[in-house]
Amino acid sequence: MADDHEIRSVSSHGATPHPGSLSRSDSSASTTPSDGNETTIHQPIPTRPRLPSRKSSGPLVVPRDSSAVGPVDAEFGPDDVRAMSPRRTSEDIDKMGKEAREELRRHAKALQESLVAIFNRIEAVREEHDKLDSNNKFLQKYIGDLMSTSKITAAGSRGKK
Prior knowledge:
Helix content is 52%, strand content 4%.
């Protein structure tokens, strides 16, 4: 009876039980509705789930001379998706190579023609620049000559007055 009193006082006060008591903590102790004065301790029993049984995969080591070693050629039916993959024959690859080279030649020829056109335009602009530059120098010389003659005539008219 003294043990019952100790267990009840532990669960009601939240203190740690004495070494002789059976309760683990306040949360694990519960009272049953039929016995208002007794405490029952619930302890979970852990169980591990069973693993499913599997067949043995056999030895992983294969002898060197075995026929199971190496690539396996698979035959696919005409309706199999794997048979419809975009694999190309050597003729297809040669044809594609010729088409790619021809396209590259056409592209290079177009680039060369545009380069020649740009070069011709540069030459035309250079000739125009040289022509305008020589005209500009001629006009500067002409204006300079006019200014010097106007200074001479202006100085001569002052002297007469």
